[in-house]
Amino acid sequence: MTHTTKVACVVALKSKRTAPKQKHSQTLSRADGGCSVGRCFCSLPKTAESAAVSESLLRVMALRACGLIVCRTLRSGSALKMGDEIEFLLLQTSYGKHHWTPPKGHVDPGEDDLQTALRETQEEAGLGEKHFRILEGYRKELRYMVKGQPKTVVYWLAELCDSGTSIRLSEEHQDYRWLGVEEACQLSDYKDMQEALREAHSFILNRQEPS
User: Fold this and answer.
1) Domain 63-207, CATH class in plain words
2) Are the C-beta atoms of residues 121 and 67 closer than 8 Å to each other?
3) Does residue 14 contact residue 120 with C-beta atoms inside 8 Å?
4) Which long-range contacts (CB under 8 A, 24 or more apart) does 116-121 make?
5) Which of 36, 40, 76 is nearest to 55 (CA)?
6) Among 54, 93, 113, 163, which is 20 to 30 Å from 177 by CA?
7) Mean pLDDT of all residues in 15-34
8) Tens digit of pLDDT for each residue in 134-180?
9) Are residues 103 and 124 in contact, defined by beta-carbon separation less than 8 angstroms?
10) Which of 165, 202, 177, 164 is nearest to 82 (CA)?
11) CB atoms within 10 A of CB 174
12) Whole-number mean pLDDT of the chain?
């Protein structure tokens, strides 16, 4: 006879319609040997050793995030000129200190960094891979401390295919803006993020052939 049990798990579930953290309950079979809920590290039976490993893995993953610096170019012609305006997308969080950042988020189990960046941009801004192209050659890592723990954020640079593409925010954000590089730097709270935006701006200009 199969015995079932209820397991309550706290998971970081990124979704347009859910808060960053929520509890879920799932009826599990002991014969299954674990929880089938995505992004969950529950297992039955759970030993102290396996619990410690799961907790350690979650802690490490929570300190690594990835995202896209999304830009759009308002061209006056077919080629980019110095007078054209390059704008960057910043999202304002709906929680905490309401920081302004590009779309980003924590790496989920089984994802690589770029997959995380693409997923987070889709979830937080409503922009899928069909809406932009990754500009190869730009990759920026930011490293800083969060509550005494080192955190790494990896950014790639993406340019919208259509500068008029609409942004669709998740519940994690309350506002967005398209801004020139210096305006974007003024809204950004962190020196490293300001440096990343300026480097992205220079990268876009330098990769274009002179007209």
Assistant:
1) alpha beta
2) yes
3) yes
4) 116/65, 116/66, 116/67, 117/66, 117/67, 117/68, 117/154, 117/155, 117/156, 118/68, 119/14, 120/14, 120/66, 120/67, 120/68, 121/67, 121/68, 121/70, 121/158
5) 40
6) 113
7) 38
8) 999 999 999 989 889 999 999 999 999 999 999 999 999 999 999 99
9) yes
10) 202
11) 12
12) 78
pLDDT in tens, 57-101: 555 555 899 999 999 998 766 555 555 699 999 999 999 999 999
Asked if residues 26 and 7 have their Cβ atoms less than 8 Å apart, the reply is: yes
Question: What's the one-letter identity of residue 80?
Answer: L
Cα–chain center distance at 192:
17
Res 12 pLDDT > 90? no
How wide is the angle at C-alpha 138 spanned by C-alphas 133 and 140, nearest 5°?
Answer: 120
Residue range(s) in the chain whose domain bears CATH number 3.90.79.10: 63-207
Three-class secondary structure of residue 70 per DSSP = strand
Q: Give the integer Cα–Cα distance in Å for 114 and 129.
A: 12
- 16 in Cβ contact with 123 (< 8 Å): yes
* Nearest C-alpha neighbor of 152 from the set 63, 60, 67: 63
Structure tokens at 197: 């935006």
Number of H helices, E strands in the chain: 4, 9
Look at the block and give the residue holding tokens 């941009």.
Answer: 121
Taking the model in full, what pTM does it have? Answer: 0.69
